[in-house]
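Much of what follows relies on a compact textual record of a protein's fold. Here is one such record, which you should read through line by line:
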Amino acid sequence: MADKQISLPAKLINGGIAGLIGVTCVFPIDLAKTRLQNQQNGQRMYTSMSDCLIKTIRSEGYFGMYRGAAVNLTLVTPEKAIKLAANDFFRHHLSKDGKKLTLLREMLAGCGAGTCQVIVTTPMEMLKIQLQDAGRIAAQKKLMAAQAQLSSSSGAGAAEPAVERRPTATQITRELLRSKGIAGLYKGLGATLLRDVPFSIVYFPLFANLNKLGQKDPSVKAPFYVSFLSGCVAGSTAAVAVNPCDVIKTRLQSLQRGVNEDTYSGILDCTKKIWQKEGPMAFLKGAYCRALVIAPLFGIAQVVYFLGIAEFLLDMLPKHRA
């Protein structure tokens, strides 16, 4: 991030706009990532990202790829705003007399940003995962019912399985608040911190240093394409680095399980069961999907943030009123 001071409203608006644009572009890939990470050894529905997206469109229609997008679009604005603004805030206060930050201080600023964002990230991811994975579980149940009919001698006269109604984000929220209170929405908080803090520690310093390579002068912003490419490279690198933590977080936050799938009591139990039953490569499930999601998401975020769209809008308001 640039060390130049930007007003807090501008930081929040820039982060929000960036998040909305990015999520709209890459949400179907994020849905595929969640479903691939959640399926365990046994009744596997998808073999790859493309297979997941094709089957999703066939069974749920085009808009099935955007299940849970409303939650993300609603909460990604404060999430990205907090993340980007917090990193800028910590970088400013960790710098001494405007001097260049050391790598350690850049990492500390990223750590602070990652810690702040989980206030919004945890409930957002919690709700999003339930909606994204509902289609996989429903398809698995339908397939199991069809296989049971074929194997039974009286399958020809068997009744069609009842259509299962999928819950909405509002219904899930009400049920969690009723049964577990606010803690229900923060299930998997520890795993979210375990993912987002290291992600920010890797991402922000890497982005800042890559972006500086495109600056001809320290006082002049890098071209927008440099910021975009820096955001893509830094985002995808950090995403793959913390993917094992993302797999654990996704499993812990899933409230419903497919047929013969394990449940977990915590981070250590989840890690142990995945390692023993699925092998170490299971921790890389959805890694390329996550890289494809994060790269353009943060590339777009940094371009919007560095172009200062919000500053332009805020500067225009007084003139408009006049």
Q: What stands out?
A: The longest helix spans residues 103-151. DSSP finds twelve helices and no strands in the chain. The mean pLDDT is 82.
